[in-house]
Every structure is written in structure tokens, then in C-alpha cells.
Design goal:
Layout (H helix, E strand, L loop, with lengths): L1 E7 L6 H13 L3 E7 L4 H7 L5 E11 L2 H14 L3 E5 L7 H6 L2 E4 L7 H19 L7
Helix pairs in contact: 1-5, 3-5
Length: 140
């Protein structure tokens, strides 16, 4: 199983260091692929989604999950051997076509986060979920 994180926009300071940090930590536990796309090309997002992947769009209107519930989602995808793709929109969110394609929508709460920060939070939570699945402590 592969984790694919598709984001609108390149990681920039001060978030770039955190993206790199959590990607490195997560890379010890999972096959991570990060795809950075330009703003305004929602068709590019749809084209870059892996075939057969479970697509999870980050959306303020989505479902909030605990770290343990995210770990369960990852475990379910592992069992089905399907890739898991997460899509993080730009400053204006995701296009309706991308949201319609998503198999699920994930929210980090009702507050709006800068999209670069949302990417960092996603990578940290994916790392934490893998630590939970490995039965390792995840508070560091």
C-alpha cells in the first residue's frame, strides 16, 4: 500500500521544514509519495489520483477522526491492498469535482487552517497513526 499526498502549492517556509521532518519520519513506516501541483488546475488533481485508491479529501465539512480512527482507516486500506490518497486544496479549498471523486472527506475541525499548515498536520497524523498501528508510543 502506498500513501499519496496530493497538495496544491509547494511547501514554503516556515512549513517546508515540518513537511520534510514528518515525511522523513513517516517514510520509516510507509511508502509515501508527495505530489505538489499548481493552483487552479483541479483537473491535474484528478489525473494524479492513483487508480483504485481510496481518496480522502481534506474538507472543513468532512468528518473529524481521532488519531486512533485514522489508524483504523489506514489498517482497513492495508487489508484491501488499495492505495490511500489524501488531497489538500489550496487557499480556496477543493473544487466540487474533486470533492465528488473523494471516497471520504476528512476535517481537522470547523476552523479554517492555512493549507500549508493542514499539510503538516496531515503528515504528522499519518505518522502518529502508523506508530499506533505498530504498537509504539506516539507521544514524543
Amino acid at each position: 500500500m502506498r500513501l499519496v499526498v496530493i497538495t496544491v502549492g509547494k511547501a514554503r517556509p516556515p512549513f517546508a521544514d515540518d513537511v520534510e521532518h514528518y515525511a522523513r519520519l513517516l517514510g520509516r513506516h510507509a511508502r509515501l509519495e508527495q505530489v505538489e501541483l499548481g493552483e487552479g488546475d483541479d483537473q491535474a488533481i484528478l489525473r494524479r489520483l492513483p487508480g483504485g485508491a481510496h481518496v480522502c479529501a481534506l474538507d472543513r465539512e468532512g468528518k473529524a477522526l481521532s488519531s486512533e480512527a485514522l489508524a483504523e482507516l489506514i489498517a482497513e486500506r492495508r487489508m484491501s491492498r488499495a492505495d490511500l490518497a489524501f488531497v489538500v486544496g489550496g487557499p480556496f479549498g477543493l473544487d466540487a469535482a474533486v470533492l465528488e471523486r473523494a471516497d471520504s472527506r476528512l476535517s481537522f475541525g470547523p476552523m479554517t487552517l492555512p493549507h500549508q499548515l493542514a499539510r503538516v498536520v496531515l503528515l504528522e497524523q499519518l505518522f502518529r497513526a502508523h506508530k499506533i498501528l505498530a504498537g509504539e508510543p506516539y507521544h514524543y
